[in-house]
Design goal:
alpha/beta; globular; two-stranded antiparallel ribbon; binds magnesium ion; CoA ester lyase; eight-stranded parallel β-sheet; about 375 residues; single chain; binds ligand LIB3CWND
Length: about 375
């Protein structure tokens, strides 16, 4: 275990100082593209400015024969795309490297950091099993940053895709000051857990609770009864939210593979938003708008939150006391929730003019 005094010291001579806080940059949609796919790569410049994060995916969904082309394609994009990546950019540049036990992960990092380390904001690491995986990436990044002369640390994001990773979730989140967040990897996680599903994220019609029968007679048991589909991912997302909040980092949903079902996609994203996630992955251009809508607080919620803040301020501004608003009691605890909402809205509005206009109109109206 590292001593508390060493925790914020660089892990290599000449590497940038690790961050003491992870900036809350907008990251509602982490849009995945395959840099070896010319059609997808061609769309990247037009997406800059309108999506919070563009992620060059090097891992699953990229064919083995294209691994080198994907890495080189990402270098080309990172070096030549105006406005993409870096601390001031509206659109961050992330990558998902190959798994640490694969033949490609080492070359991914040793190629990308010298070539585009100055614009690369976050490295997403798949199939993280425990703190040891983060420690390995942490040290290697420090060495590569020092060698490349970078002046800011690249952050690390872990995907939860194994039962061991979920069991070690708190130690993963706290393994390095570089840890930026966690995403759910529902497809790999389902396989590792031996869940009996075949989907990439989302619900399952068989995972349900049925209304009690009117009586224990055979007729009533076989009668039609309401069923309520449950969320397969609730437990894991809730664990992620708590572990991330405890460590001051950010939880994200992950992939929703049924690209055609935009309605269920929105529902699944909203569940994650309500539980505390700050964003999700987008696999197809049409999922970007869904993610941006869901992970931005609604105009109605922001308007209500502002009213609570104003009512509690009128009471003295120190959070003590209680008021009635629309028949409901508001106090310090609801004020704190409302401040989460208002602060998120302000942060998003600062980089999203459309949203800024909507929130401003609600304030005036
Ligand atoms: C899912 C797709 C294979 C669908 O592609 P396609 O059939 O080409 O869709 P469309 O014909 O509707 O595409 C319309 C045009 O848009 C371009 N396109 C498609 N997707 C993207 C994209 N992500 N970024 C940019 N541009 C995109 C198409 O090229 C078409 O262009 P044009 O012909 O010029 O009009 C495809 O969307 C895709 O591969 N998406 C990414 C998949 C991915 O990244 N998967 C990995 C993440 S999920 C995962 O790994 C699981 C996880 O780890 C876990 O364990 O749970
Ligand atoms: Mg996966």
């Amino acid at each position: 275990m590292r001593s508390a005094k060493d925790f914020f010291r660089p892990l290599a001579v000449g590497a940038p100082t690790p961050p003491t806080e992870i900036p809350a940059r907008p990251s509602r949609a982490i849009h995945f593209f395959d840099p070896s796919n010319p059609k997808m790569a061609a769309k990247v410049p037009d997406m800059v400015g309108s999506v919070d994060v563009l992620l060059g995916n090097l891992e699953d969904a990229v064919k083995a024969d294209n691994k080198v082309a994907a890495r080189e394609g990402l270098v080309e994009i990172g070096q030549n795309t105006e406005g993409l990546g870096g601390p001031e950019a509206q659109t961050q540049l992330w990558t998902r490297i190959n798994a640490l036990d694969s033949p490609w992960a080492l070359d991914d990092l040793t190629t990308l950091i010298p070539a585009i380390g100055h614009t690369l904001d976050v490295v997403m690491v798949p199939k993280v099993q425990g703190a040891e995986d983060i420690h390995y990436v942490d040290r290697l990044l420090a060495q590569l940053e020092a060698k490349a002369g970078l002046d800011r640390p690249i952050l690390v994001h872990a995907i939860l895709e194994t039962a061991r990773g979920v069991a070690n979730i708190e130690e993963i989140c706290g393994a390095s000051p570089r840890m930026q967040g966690l995403s759910l990897g529902p497809a790999d996680l389902a396989a590792d857990r031996r869940m009996k599903t075949t989907r990439v994220g989302g619900g399952h019609p068989g995972y349900l609770v049925r209304q009690d029968p009117a009586s224990s007679s055979e007729a009533d048991i076989n009668a039609s009864r309401s069923v309520f589909q449950q969320d397969l991912w609730h437990y894991t997302i809730a664990r992620m939210v708590d572990a991330c909040a405890m460590h001051g980092i950010y939880p994200y949903y992950g992939p929703f593979g049924d690209i055609a079902d935009v309605v269920a996609c929105e529902d699944q994203f909203r569940n994650a938003f309500l539980l505390g996630c700050v964003g999700t992955w987008s696999l197809h251009p049409k999922q970007i708008a869904i993610a941006k809508k869901v992970f931005s607080p609604s105009v109605e919620d922001v308007a209500h939150a502002r009213r609570v803040v104003a009512a509690m301020s009128a009471l003295g501004g120190d959070g003590t006391g209680a008021v009635m608003l629309d028949g409901k009691m508001e106090d310090d605890a609801s004020l704190k929730q409302c401040l989460v909402m208002v602060e998120l809205a302000e942060r998003l509005a600062a980089t999203d003019p459309e949203l800024a206009e909507l929130y401003a109109a609600a304030e005036e109206g």
